[in-house]
Amino acid sequence: MSGQTSVSSTTTTATIDLANGSYAYTVASANKNYATSAASGSFAVSGAAVSKSVSFIPYTYAVTFTEGGLPTGTTWYLNVTGQASVSSTATMASIPLANGTYAYVLASASQLYATSPAAGSFAVHGAPVAVTVTFSLVTYAVTFTETGLPTGTNWPVTLSSTARSSSTTTITFSEANGTYAYAVGSVGGVHGL
Predict the structure, then answer these.
(1) How many CB atoms lie under 10 A from the CB of residue 192?
(2) Which terminus of the chain is more exposed, N or C, with fewer CB under 10 A?
(3) pTM of the predicted model, to two decimals?
(4) Same structural domain, 54 and 65
């Protein structure tokens, strides 16, 4: 308060007696996690009590998620505990958050892509936070099972351009959705069908 000693309070009100006149004031919180949108102002006393309302809100910091791996323009979704869901077709999505620890979940509008893990957590401690996430094609097991060979015989399979062999009865590949060509190699003059 201009020309006056500072007034502090631990309740919701702070009172000071003033003579008629015009006054300027500033407001601050001892808790540095909070601020007011109107930290200063003025008022006039003219023969009656004056009441001023001040609202404090938590400081917020930008938490920015940057994704990689999705085709350009693909929509992806971000859900942070206690916050509205965010969607984006860009590589970045940002939300303002106060200090604290938060959990998040990610998803893609394209069911062909997912993140691993799909969920995580982060903490805000008085500074912006950057989180990088990577989407990858969802893959499924493709298993070839042989019959007819003597136990322990090594046999080969080529799926697309990937060749593998095994001396057990199965060979497994991990592939995304799609159509694939394969070839089973011969073993001692015996050809796979």
Answers:
(1) 16
(2) C
(3) 0.69
(4) no
